[in-house]
TrEMBL record:
Domain SnoaL-like span(s) in chain numbering: 21-120
InterPro entries for the chain: NTF2-like_dom_sf (IPR032710), SnoaL-like (IPR037401)
Superkingdom assignment: Bacteria
Full protein name: Nuclear transport factor 2 family protein
Any Pfam family hit: SnoaL_2
Length: 156
């Protein structure tokens, strides 16, 4: 049986843009396993897991994860990494899709992988979504947020 670190490293390999094997990635998970995109409050289970990979690769076909540090603590594998790629496809947001910009992203990320009997039970991805969006040119609209807060505070 592969070690927990080997399973996680295989998951990263299968998620690379030049490999992109969503079904192989899914097969590394337990039947009830989950992939949680924590900053965006998204959870993928079962057959949704490969779709999550395909969606990201659609926006960044050359997606690459540069693993900086990997620590195994029993059934938990913690990884510090950088998600890198070129924005060549539409990137979905709650208010619509950001069209391709051709910009490169290099996003600091920390992933926590929880395994049970050699299978991934839960994968929590903590990417710096604010950095990601800024690198795509989608900076936050602070002015609108300030105005909305003023309106709420005054009860108008």
């Amino acid at each position: 049986m592969k070690s927990n670190e080997e399973v996680v490293r295989e998951a990263y390999r299968l998620a690379e843009g030049n490999v992109l094997d969503g079904h192989g990635f899914r097969a590394l998970f337990t039947e009830d396993g989950s992939f949680n995109d924590v900053p965006n409050s998204l959870t993928f289970r079962g057959d949704q897991i490969p779709q999550a990979l395909a969606g990201l690769a659609g926006a960044f076909p050359d997606i690459h994860r540069e693993l900086l540090d990997v620590h195994t603590m029993g059934d938990v594998v913690a990884v510090e990494l950088r998600i890198q790629g070129t924005h060549l496809g539409g990137f979905p947001t709650p208010v619509g899709e950001i069209p391709p910009t051709g910009r490169r992203i290099d996003v600091p990320t920390a992933d926590l992988w929880y395994l049970r009997e050699g299978k991934i039970e839960m994968f929590n991805c903590y990417n710096a979504a604010n950095v990601w969006l800024a690198q795509l040119g989608a900076n936050p609209d602070f002015e609108s947020a300030i105005e909305a807060a003023k309106t709420t505070a005054t009860g108008a």
